[in-house]
Write a structure and sequence with these properties.
heterodimer, A: 283 residues, alpha/beta, D-Maltodextrin-Binding Protein, domain 2, 5-stranded mixed β-sheet, 19% strand, globular, B: 248 residues, mainly alpha, two-stranded antiparallel ribbon
Chain lengths: 283, 248
């Protein structure tokens, strides 16, 4: 009797396990369906990156990437759920299915394309530059041998160390890094020009400037899990990304959040806009 | 050293895709060695500081002055009951703003570096526990033992030096080993104030090269080895000091 009940229990358990496994497999197959079934779209966004994603005084997330993520959720008819990620963990979150989509200021690089499904076209572009107290830095070479504050997990930290022999002092978050600059722990804050531009709008940074040109300009792309890139979810996101460029949505957002749009935006907008001139007869 | 390792790890990467870049790229290898050295120093100095604080604190706790005892108790409460990461941030950003600095033109060299802050903060954190551990050890010395010493005409200081302290130290050792190991592990939190120790270095390496599992494995092995070494040393000491028939 006890042997039979043990057998019975084992059978139920294994049936449950099989059910879980097959459910997992089905979910892995069709992420788009999973998102619709769940009714929630989980988007990985940076926590304190003004004006892309940052907290409003009431605690809600807001910003350009939050607006974009909300639009994706609206189009799918699901709830938008921002998940705070960092540069160092965002791709792992995507791989582990903690999030469905990265809209987190991520550069599109060859290395990253091996790990996550990068959505084309890109939705933003930026490059690394320095924020420093007025008059202290005139050229990139001025950081040689000096401490430069930066953010942990950012891929150009190494470039500044190898190319200009600066000592990169990296912090887990932007806020700590900039606080370290303010308290004089380093000569400059190394980060994206767009973020620094937004900081300079703030009166708190009135004594600071962006003295050097960007080291390089790199597009930012949204990313989906790599296995979903050519399935419904990846294709849907490609459509969204295309429309953001073609409809001029990104230029609008730049205006809304008071970011100076680089010429890149106008170029992409014109390149990707479908020329429907043939609809209106010439003469 | 790198010349010996590089061919094997390059081959491993080519064959299996396991990218242990720190063992074949000279730049990353340098970062790794630096991180390991900083971690080792951080652990050693903060353990030593925590021991000194523990011994002095336990001694002060048994003093006659209520004020001194109150101060030590307040210190223990404050530092045992707050998270070590918050303490690190508090010391570095909170107190760091008030410490003197030397102007270097554009930036200032603080007299207390992030490494020193980490040693101070971790030492103070671990010390709060050590005080209690030593105090428990001192109190656990049997009263009869002290009476016996007194009857042999030992002075108060002699009793403390030859009877109480040696016994108390032996009694404290197992709990002390636990706390020191825990403190060594906590040293990994120093990355939040940008001390380039092992966790900081490897997280930068895995961000640059996207080899998270490999570097996580290495980080795991590093702390395992560090803790094993500390544990082995303290266990050796424990065996060395063991008194036959006492606490065995």
């Amino acid at each position: 009797m006890s042997a039979r009940s043990t057998f019975g229990r084992a059978f139920v358990l294994s049936a449950l396990a099989v059910a879980c496994l097959t459910q997992g497999a089905a979910a892995a197959d069709e992420r788009l369906k999973e998102i619709l079934d769940r009714g929630v779209l989980r988007v990985g966004v940076q926590g304190a990156q003004k004006p892309w994603s940052f907290r409003a005084p009431d605690g809600a997330m807001q910003g350009i990437e939050v607006d974009l993520g909300k639009e994706v959720a609206d189009k799918l008819g699901v709830k938008f759920e921002p998940v705070i990620i960092t540069s160092a963990n965002r791709m792992q979150f995507l791989q582990q299915k903690k999030i469905d989509l990265i809209l987190g200021g991520m550069y599109d690089t060859a290395e990253r394309r091996k790990i996550v499904g990068i959505i084309e076209p890109a939705y933003w572009t930026s490059g690394p530059t320095l924020l420093a107290k007025k008059g202290t830095i005139k050229d990139w070479k001025d950081v040689t041998g000096k401490p430069v504050c930066a953010k942990q997990g950012v891929n150009y930290n190494k470039l500044v160390e190898t190319k200009f022999h600066a000592t990169v002092v990296a912090f887990p978050g932007n806020t700590e890094g900039k606080e370290a600059l303010r308290s004089g722990k380093c000569v400059a804050w190394l980060f994206d020009d767009v973020s620094i531009m937004a900081d300079l709008e703030d009166a708190a940074w009135a004594d600071y400037e962006m003295p050097v040109p960007v080291l390089l300009s790199n597009p930012w792309a949204a990313a989906v899990p790599i296995e979903d890139l050519d399935k419904g979810w990846g294709v849907f996101m490609t459509g969204m990304a295309y429309r953001w460029q073609a409809s001029g949505k990104l230029l609008e957002l730049a205006k809304k959040w008071k970011v100076q749009a680089a010429p890149w935006f106008q170029e992409q907008h014109e390149k990707l806009r479908w020329d429907d001139g043939y609809l209106t007869p010439k003469n | 050293m790198l010349d010996l390792l590089a061919p094997f790890f390059k081959d491993l990467y080519a064959r299996t895709g396991l990218n242990f870049i720190v063992f074949y790229d000279p730049y990353e290898f340098g970062r790794l060695l630096n991180g390991a050295a900083i971690s080792a120093q951080l652990i050693v100095w903060s353990l030593l500081l925590s021991l000194v604080i523990g011994i002095v604190g336990a001694w002060v706790q048994s003093s006659q002055s209520a004020v001194l005892r109150g101060v030590v108790n307040a210190y223990i409460q404050a530092f045992r009951n707050t998270p070590p990461m918050i303490q690190l941030l508090f010391f570095y950003f909170g107190l760091g703003a008030f410490t003197p600095t030397v102007d270097m033109g554009g930036y200032s060299q603080p007299l207390i570096s992030s490494f020193t802050w980490a040693v101070l903060s971790l030492g103070i954190f671990g010390g709060a526990f050590n005080v209690e551990i030593f105090r428990a050890g001192l109190q656990a010395v049997p009263h009869a033992m002290l009476e016996a010493a007194e009857s042999l005409c030992f002075s108060r200081w002699q009793t403390y030096r030859y009877v109480t302290l040696p016994l108390a130290f032996r009694i404290s050792l197992p709990a002390l080993t636990n706390n020191l190991i825990s403190l060594a592990k906590t040293s990994s939190l120093a990355y939040v104030i940008s001390v380039p120790e092992m966790t900081y270095v490897l997280s930068q390496v895995w961000s640059d090269n996207i080899n998270v599992p490999e570097m996580m494995l290495l980080l795991f092995a590093f702390y395992l080895a560090a803790v094993w070494i500390i544990g082995a040393m303290l266990h050796w000491l424990e065996r060395r000091l063991a008194l036959p028939g006492y606490g065995q």
